Amino acid sequence: MALSVPLSRFTSRVGGGSAFFVRHPMSLRRFIICSLCAMAIGFVLFLWLLLGFPEQLLPTDPPPSFAQTIVRYACMIALWPFAVASLILHEDPPRLIYWLLLWIAAGLFWGFVAELIFYVKHMRDA
Fold first, then answer.
1. Is the full-model pTM beyond 0.90?
2. Is residue 82 included in any domain, yes or no?
3. b vs e for 86-102, b when ≥16 Cβ sit within 10 Å of the residue's Cβ?
4. Would residue 79 count as lying in a domain?
5. Domain containing 77: what range?
6. If you compute the radius of gyration of the chain from its CA atoms, what whole number of angstroms results?
7. Does some domain include residue 92?
8. What is the pLDDT of residues 89-122, one digit of tens each?
């Protein structure tokens, strides 16, 4: 029975290893950490936008400052699934569970983008 298993499956005692073992540069742990960080950043941006800026400007209000405009655009980019859902539904998503799912989708998307950047950087260095 020992002869039926290819020798490449066993690790050599001299420090070698299987010639077929390939370590993937994408780490699940790093992907999860990047996704959670993206979700936290998106949540903070959303709270800052919600609590820091009025929803509608009155005609007597001064125009938004440059910083307020930058925060609004950053929030729209970071939380793009909310904007897409609002465009499709022609209103805000109706239930809290939809908000949670969209928030998770945004975090996973930006985690994937960060992992893709790490992968490209790893391929250039190799």
1. no
2. yes
3. eeeeeeebeeeeeeeeb
4. yes
5. 27-125
6. 23
7. yes
8. 888 777 777 878 888 888 889 888 888 888 888 8
Spatial neighbors of 53 by CB under 8 A, at least 6 apart, are 64, 68, 71, 72
| CB-side neighbour CA atoms (13 Å) of 94 | 3
Structural contact between residues 99 and 43, judged by C-beta atoms closer than 8 angstroms = no
Tell me which amino acid residue 43 is: F
d(CA 94, CA 10): 56
Q: Is 95 helix (H, G, I), strand (E, B) or coil?
A: coil
- Tokens in use for 72? 């609004």
Q: How many angstroms separate the Cα of 113 from the Cα of each of 34, 35, 55, 105? A: 9, 9, 30, 12
Q: Does residue 76 fall inside a structural domain?
A: yes
For residue 51, give both structure tokens: 């609590």
Token pair belonging to 31: 């992907």
Overall domain count for the chain: 1
Is the C-alpha dihedral spanning 85, 106, 117, 120 positive or negative? negative
For the segment 13-46, what is each residue's pLDDT rounded down to a tens digit? 555 555 555 555 557 888 888 888 888 888 887 7
**Both structure tokens of 19:** 């010639």
